[in-house]
Amino acid sequence: MDPSAPIDHVSRRRFLGAASATAGLAGMGLAAMAAPAGAQPAGSRQSGAKRPGPNDQVVAGFIGCGIRFHELINGATQFGPAAVVCDLDDVQLGRGLQSAMDAHNTHRYPMGIEHCRDYRRVLDRSDLDVVVIATPDHWHTKLAIEAMRAGKDVYCEKPLTLTIAEGAAIEKVLGETGRVFQVGTQQRSDFGKRFANAAAIVRDGRVGKVNHVTCGIDGSMTCPPLPTTDAPREFDFQTWLGQTPVVPYCAGAKIQTSGYGAGVPFSRTHNFFRWWYEYAGGKLTDWGAHHVDIALWATQPPLDKPFTLDPLMVEHPVPFENGMPTVHDRFNCATKFKCRVTFADGLVLDVCDEAPDLGFGNGIMFQGSEGRMFVNRGKLTGKAVDQLKEKPLPEDALEKLYGKKPPTSHMGDFVECVKNGGKTVSDVTSHNAHLNVCHAVNIALRLNRKLTFDPAAMKFTGDDQATSFVARKQRKGFEIGA
């Protein structure tokens, strides 16, 4: 398939695939309830002429119906209907369509929801205000850039990028188009403002001068060797590969029993894409994109100046040579690791799978001259937290942190900015600066040597091999920006 071809020129194979998708959905009793291709939802508004007003609904299109979609559809439909859902897998698409219809039923929206495999159908719709991207990481940048150029505001799941270079490409197009963009690092807004309060406590000096932060982010999953097999007939695996190299589909009989992958056989795709460097960055761009983001949001080291990365320990589930896995039939992201990042102002950030010496697994430990403070999604503890009873934070502490009134929710903040303008809580620039630390850590882990990264030059000082990981060769027909 040539994704740059006009959407009206559909090959016979793709036409039959689309027909098969509709037939499969009809078999699940869904097609009759969904709108035909190209349909506009009842009461929809033509976008582009002006932004939705304060009392207008925000019409959304969704690309990707996997593990994050079902939470996002519930969040977005609080503010308006879903016009269209899109996925390359008919099974996921059917589940996504059902979730969208359930959300419409909850909010009493009309049931005119289109379903499609081709993301260009989403971008070509004139009635959409926003596009919500919940695909695997290696598709984020291409979709985000094309959505902005199509005149849509964008909510994109984290991590925003697969490589450091992709972040610069998104920032360039964002500057050209002036669209509103929210990255899905929802720890900045949600979870009872627990992480925001931790950041505000640090910025208010309550733990003194912070000299050391440790982020425990868990280790990536492992799996047994996965045999090569045919991709499921209802899944367009070749398109799913996108910019990445063409490889055979592989899947095993073993089924993960808990977590994101529960009930699904191990494979390269869907719930397990995170554990392949080809498509993601393992735990560094999963939990690291959350916890490292909060650590740097709180401490504000100089991210425009060079910083060093020292991989103190790393274990990968397969052998590596020159930073590349040499075995290709199983997950390959780091399972155990500890990398020490030292910034120009002296702040030390340890990123590890767990921190037994500090007594925790997943979470963030701030160590300052006035004591320690720990935060994760379950708790916020430390002397500085206890002292809030006698000496609360200033009333405007969160407002200063956010640079505006604290948002009610992450999706709510996005919608507010779509309607009224302004910078989102998780803006592209700050997210990229923080995520690039995670990308740089991954490169140090893969090469297993000490590196110095220069953010301004976007290269590793004196190390051409490390710099070669800043960008990747993209498969013809799936180039970013093409």
From TrEMBL:
Occurrences of domain Gfo/Idh/MocA-like oxidoreductase N-terminal (ranges): 108-184
Secretion signal span: 1-34
Occurrences of domain Gfo/Idh/MocA-like oxidoreductase bacterial type C-terminal (ranges): 226-479
Pfam family, one: GFO_IDH_MocA
Keyword Cell cycle on entry: no
Gene3D superfamilies in the record: Dihydrodipicolinate Reductase, domain 2 (3.30.360.10), NAD(P)-binding Rossmann-like Domain (3.40.50.720)
Entry EC number(s): 1.1.1.18
Protein name as it appears in the record: Inositol 2-dehydrogenase
GO molecular function, a single term: nucleotide binding
Oxidoreductase recorded as keyword: yes
Keywords: Oxidoreductase, Signal
